Amino acid sequence: MTEQTAQAQAAPVPSDHIMGVYQRAPLAFERGEGARLYTAEGEAYLDCMAGIAVNALGHANPKLVQALKDQAEKLWHVSNIFQIPGQEKLAGMLTAATFADVVFFTNSGAEAIECAIKTARKHHWKNGQPERIDIIGFEGSFHGRTLAAVNASGNPSYLEGFGPPMPGFVHLPFGDFEAIEQAVGATTAAIILEPVQGEGGARAFPDALLRKIRQLCDETGTLLIYDEIQCGLGRSGRLFVYDWLEGDATPDIMAVAKALGGGFPVGACLATADAAKGMTPGSHGSTYGGNPLAMAVGAAAVEELTKPELMAHVREVAGYFTQQLSGLQDRFPDVVVDIRGKGLLIGVKLATPNREFMQHARDEHLLIAGGGDNCVRLLPPLNLTLEEAREAIGKFERACEAARAKARAAA
Ligand SMILES: *Cc1c(COP(=O)(O)O)cnc(C)c1O
Questions:
Q1: Which whole-number Å values give the CA distances from 30 to 40, 47, 58, 63, in the listed order?
Q2: Global pTM?
């Protein structure tokens, strides 16, 4: 064994052979169970990021494992040129639980966004208004990493070096309704937003603003696209964030992914029949999208995620976190600046660097995610127990102490 491979086994180092687009933590896991992840050495970590809101039912959830195993022994893949009963089943479940009439299945969130944008533009084209191509998005948004998705998000650092910004995308400041009113015009196709921004730092659109946007869309024939890839499927304490508005701000098109497969890659673009009227045979497609493995796991996940008792549990655990984190904000005003988000999409804005704080948390064997605006995010599995939440708060508190000590030593 060379010295280099010995080192690599002790602590994972940046790979020579993986495209270097991630700054990875020096940590690798071998298995998971519920909210616990275990390294090859058997060290346990409490997972309060859940693969960035993906493992919503915990790691190795027995129901999802069983669904995957059962399907794996029957059929993995055919092609979308055939009927896929699993798609009919999952689409039926999703449309029954939402505003939507139809669903297109994808392998990822970004692809669900692609489908949403194409659906919106094609709708207007079908209506004889091909000039309506503009997609209006908001500062702080994140819609994925395909070219259309980074153009929709407009984050300059994700666009840099990838050629000129695409035409047909407009970006507005967060929360400014007057700017939206002014921007919507004869060439507007759709407004796209995350009802609770994830990567941007767990920022929720105020309910009143969502209502006004919906109304403006109705008045102007603009389609409203929600990106509930991160905040949807139960994370907010209702199945979707728009459910909190009781029918007042329902979208025309919605992208979901992440929790949909609980760790198996699957996404979906949901739409009303009218919004999707341009999506006729040949207008879109995907080789893998909606394949039988993804559909089997997705159906098992949605069955769990639509249980009212799980939503009640999310609200209870979220209430506990919010209360405890506010207490920590009072005790560590030099570290914790703000608590935000909705349900178990919790953002903690920090006064000390968030990347360092994530390391302090890892030192306590607590895994949390970063976020924009110097936030860290807590995105635990939705079935995290209150006892585990208590443990997470204890670890978070010790991370606050470490962050304070570090800031004082530097001062
Ligand atoms: C993760 C995420 C995406 C992108 O999903 P991918 O599966 O990484 O393509 C898009 N929008 C939001 C809100 C997300 O959180």
A1: 5, 14, 15, 20
A2: 0.96
